[in-house]
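Exercise 7.
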Amino acid sequence: MHPLLIARVLGLFALLFAATLTVPIAVGLVYGEADLRHLLQPLAGALSLGLVLWLAGGLGSRFGLGRRGELGVRDGFLIVALFWLLLSALGAWPLALGLGLSPVDALFESASGLTTTGATVITGLDELPRSLLFYRQELQWLGGMGVVVLGLAVIPLLGIGGMQLYRAEAPGPLKEEKLTPRLVSTARSLWLLYLSLTVACAIGYWLAGMDAFDAVAHSLSTVSTGGFSTHDASLGHYQSPAVEAVAIVFMLLAALNFGLHFAVWIRRDPGLYLRDAEARTYLGFVLLVVLLVGLVLALERVFPDPLTGFREAAFTVVSLITSTGFATVDHVHWPDFLPVLLLLIAFVGGCGGSTAGGIKALRVLLLVKQGLYEVQRLIHPRAEVPVRVGQRVVDAGLMQSVWGYFALYMITFVLCGLWMIHTGLDPLSAFAAVAASINNLGPGLGEVAYTFQGVSDQGKLVAVAAMLLGRLEIFTILVLLTPGFWRG
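Solution. The predicted structure, written as tokens, is:
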């Protein structure tokens, strides 16, 4: 390992986090907030820590205590895990100072924002200072694409390669594929796409009737599929079909593979969205669930007319399957199996390479195809029918990694659920809390349908662990717990 190099990279990230705090400070100044110590003190702390780590790593290398070079596999995994823990702690600082939250509550809110989960312990959002409201939204936006990828855009300052960071951070099973030959170009391309979608979303919200502050704030949590809002009633505050339409479009765009967006952008060919097997399957699945939910709502006469029911079904299904978690109605009390179905679709999540949580649509597609292949083998034992995604034949190694990931995902879900029950939640609320956390969804069922305020501190820490495991896709954290990682 390269401990001094790791310290230097973490120092860079701490400095970047300090820089991001200047934006909510500027928002507070614009809106005339007299006391901004809840942001200035964390800025000074993050800046000091970043400088110490940066200089320590640089001085160590200069005096021969470390060497420059390419980050190894172990370095990449360790940096990503330590970085998310460090950033969650730093991110909790303004929340603890500004809102008077306990350390556990502040850590929960920070981790929920950075992992784009959107679960909260805060109420009375409509009365909070604009600086803190914007800060919460900004946390989700930074976490959506991953601040690690942002760091990769400036990693040449360290004179090292960064591929191992990208592999540890990038969501989805096809982590070896890069959009451009050089990783720095890849990171910049991702962030340019991300920023472009955010600006377009903000303009869309503004044209739909939001004021400028809310439009920008909600664009940050929409494109990141985070779900934080500046109002307790979420997007239901606006009672606007136009706002809901903008949200649906950009939640779906954010849940599609950013590599696909990049290809469409370069080739100027929107038809690629429908020719891509994962995107086509995902959008078809979303449409199917919307029709099913809308039909049940119409049959149960939940809304005055079927059109309203299908509109609410479309928004709620897209919000939950993309793991965003915005709300316009109280879907928890919808009839029949709908509340459970809406929680379960969050396990699918978005496409690989997107900002959404969940297992990812590509993995689910591969699991289904492998299952159908095994059925065919029962009928024709000697048949050799390769598993394909589009025109691509999926090799056995990738299928093994998908099955391994799925197994670990479900084992983690069950163990965290049992632990949640141990903390005092009833079984439904416990497993809903873990489902909402590990899938980076936010809203659950039972006691955690709206807020995690009633969950014990131990339960909130379990939820934080589940959020991080879900955001970093299990392996990045679990590999650190294996003895071989530290012996290699």
